[in-house]
Design a protein that fits this description.
- The complex is a heterodimer of chains A (327) and B (261).
- Chain A is of the alpha/beta class and 327 residues long.
- Chain A has two domains: 172 residues, HUPs (Rossmann fold, 3-Layer(aba) Sandwich); 122 residues, 3-Layer(aba) Sandwich (Rossmann fold), CATH 3.40.50.1220.
- In chain A, the strands form four sheets. Chain A has a seven-stranded parallel beta sheet with strand order 7-11-6-1-4-5-12, sandwiched between helices.
- In chain A, strand 16, helix 9 and strand 17 form a beta-alpha-beta unit.
- In chain A, helix 4 packs across helix 5 and helix 7 runs parallel beside helix 10.
- In chain B, a hairpin with a 3-residue loop joins strand 8 and strand 9.
- The radius of gyration of chain B is 22 Å and the shape is globular.
- The chains are: A alpha/beta (327), B alpha/beta (261).
- At the A-B interface, helix 5, strand 7, strand 9, strand 10 and strand 13 of A face helix 3, helix 4, strand 7, strand 9 and strand 12 of B.
Chain lengths: 327, 261
């Protein structure tokens, strides 16, 4: 492995933050491997995403705005990535550990007969080998895995690395359309239900509600307001999701998402093991609960005991006032 | 329609798990083995499709030690028709590549129109088997499906995305992975449990299943080099808020100290 390929996930030409995070990390890895960083940007407005990417340490940006990328599910993107990887030769490929990244990474690995590591929170080069570190068994252990073959695919958990601007050569090249392909999964319609909101996996601040929140309403009002005041997203425990108060896409925990935000605020969540495994790697955990003996008190950095229905709106108000003072 | 559901046997989610430092594998003794909770949604989705298309069958395929047979029987008790277990010491230590490859070979040999999987497991949680499996089977793979309809050979599905969903169509044979939103898995009925005792669980070696490349530790494309236990999070501060203003002020002060506001 020498060069590092990064798959740039973007929404209508706006790269997701995790794309910048992995592009930044790729430079460090490529330097250690003695190779260069190649970004692959595909689909509608890929050119726009490529422009933004120039502010990051990428040597070559491979672009295609082929309409098939958005017209058909996943396969066209895999073909482009496969072609790029084969053209470069033995390489390390970084994809985000998101719905799209997992789909692409797993297929690309199958095509290349390559090893793959997932939900990776750190990657390094040790004695010339690329080693991925990922939490397993709900974060109770950390595994280090080295790749054996010519290629390795790493799916990186969002928020694991800092995105840092540092312009690279940023040469933009157009990818050629892989020949002789037919695509079988047609995308009929894309429905955006939560425009502009970041998913809980990617948000740097997550405000989650649990059983103590008592119903669906607070997810749309007080929790949403608090999340908005911090530029974050709304999450939920399994109890809240199972009760139908909020969609499954918001669930944090064993049967939901495992996330590593900078700040996690758990509201009315007791912190049972099923929830803990989904958020224990948050940099800072603050809990608000009426009961001071809940399990979350054992691992939160701060547990405030009191009435969440009064504290949460007050907190939002104070954060907004604070932001106004410092604006 | 011949439906195949892949399942994984995982340690009980609420159990305390431990890794053997020598073998670097999970210590399974004393930990109850259960069906991966995500796979119950896949079984339920398959059963509902079977109920709608007369003459359909549901076959469960897993790769696990033979000791897991009774766990597989739960899938049969829910209503699946039969099961294939790849139980082979040579499969131990398989990575994503090896697992997907062995499952693909087994499924190909068994024959299928539709493969249904869960979206991830609760132990390794890579979520990468469905994509790899679709690739090895050479069929369209639609992941994160929350709604599915099969009309003749046309599959119509709603696929969850980070910001909503996409409506997609494809043709059988195909693979879908389903999310928790798709259904509410049934509990096995008493009749189902009794009936499951008579259903076939075919235990196969890798060779029986037609797996023609080494999987397991030998064939793995990755090598586990180290297992560490992360430092546990320490207990933080517990603050009894006299009122909302005091509680909120405490949080603001704390966030300021950490430069989070």
């Amino acid at each position: 492995m020498k060069d590092v390929i990064v798959y740039i996930e973007h929404v209508q030409g706006q790269p997701r933050r995790v794309s910048f995070e992995i592009a930044t990390k790729a430079k460090e890895l490529a330097t250690a491997l003695g190779g260069s960083v190649h970004a692959v940007v595909l689909g509608k407005n890929a050119g726009g995403a490529a422009e933004q990417l120039k502010a990051y340490p990428v040597d070559t940006i491979h672009v295609s705005e082929d309409p098939d990328v958005d017209g058909f599910l996943v396969d066209p993107s895999v073909d482009y990535l496969e072609a790029a990887a084969k053209a470069l030769g033995p390489a390390l490929v970084l994809v985000p550990f998101t719905a799209i990244g997992r789909d692409l990474g797993s297929r690309l690995a199958a095509r290349l007969g390559a090893g793959q590591t997932a939900d990776v929170t750190d990657v390094k080069v040790e004695g010339g080998r690329v080693v991925s570190i990922s939490p397993k068994l709900g974060g109770t252990v950390l595994t280090s895995c080295a790749f054996k073959g010519d290629y390795g695919i790493v799916a990186v958990r969002p928020n694991s690395f800092k995105a840092a601007q540092a312009a690279g050569a940023g040469n933009v090249v157009q990818l050629e359309k892989p020949a002789g392909k037919t695509y079988r999964i047609k995308v009929e319609e894309v429905v955006v239900e939560a425009a502009g909101e970041l998913g809980v996996e990617e948000a740097s601040t997550v405000v989650s509600g649990g059983r103590g929140v008592g119903g669906p309403e607070p997810f749309k009002t007080i929790l949403k307001d608090l999340a908005d005041s911090l530029g974050g997203s709304v999450g939920a425990s399994r109890a809240a999701v199972d009760a139908g108060w909020i969609g499954h896409g918001h669930q944090v925990g064993q049967t939901g998402k495992t996330i590593s935000p900078n700040l996690y605020i758990a509201v009315g969540i007791s912190g049972a093991i099923q929830h803990k495994v989904g958020m224990r790697t948050a940099a800072t955990i603050v809990a608000i609960n009426k009961d001071g003996t809940v399990p979350i008190g054992e691992f939160a950095d701060l547990l405030v005991v009191g009435d969440l229905f009064a504290i949460v709106p007050e907190l939002t108000k104070q954060i907004r006032a604070n932001a106004a003072v410092h604006a | 329609m011949k439906i195949v559901v892949t399942v994984k046997l995982v340690p009980d989610t609420s159990a305390d798990k431990r890794i053997d430092p020598g073998t670097k594998r999970l210590v399974r003794s004393g930990v109850e083995t259960v069906l991966n909770p995500f796979d119950e949604y896949a079984i339920e989705a398959a059963l509902q499709l079977k109920e709608k298309a007369a003459g359909s069958t549901v076959t469960v395929v897993t790769m696990a030690p033979e000791s897991g047979k009774e766990v597989v029987r739960k899938a049969l008790a829910m209503g699946a028709d039969d099961a294939i277990m790849i139980s082979d010491p040579q499969a131990e230590g398989s990575d994503v590549w090896g697992t997907a490859y062995a499952l693909a070979k087994t499924i190909e040999k068994a024959g299928f129109d539709l493969v249904v999987t869960g979206s991830q497991s609760t132990d390794a949680s890579t979520g990468e088997i469905p994509g790899a499996l679709a690739e090895y089977l050479g069929v369209p793979g639609v992941t994160y499906v929350r709604k599915i309809e099969v009309d003749g050979t046309t599959v119509k599905a709603e696929r969850e995305t980070d910001s909503g969903y996409a409506r997609v169509t494809t043709e059988l044979p195909a693979l879908v992975s389903v999310t928790k939103s798709i259904n509410e898995p049934r509990y096995p009925s008493l009749k189902g449990i009794m009936g499951a005792k008579k259903k076939t669980i075919a235990v196969q070696t890798l060779a029986d299943a037609g797996v023609d490349k080494p999987v397991g530790s030998e064939g793995a494309r990755t090598e586990l080099t180290e297992i560490a236990t992360p430092a546990p999070r320490g207990k933080g501060e517990i603050f009894e808020a006299a009122d909302a203003v005091a509680g909120a002020a405490k949080i603001i002060e704390f966030l300021r100290e950490r430069k989070l506001v």
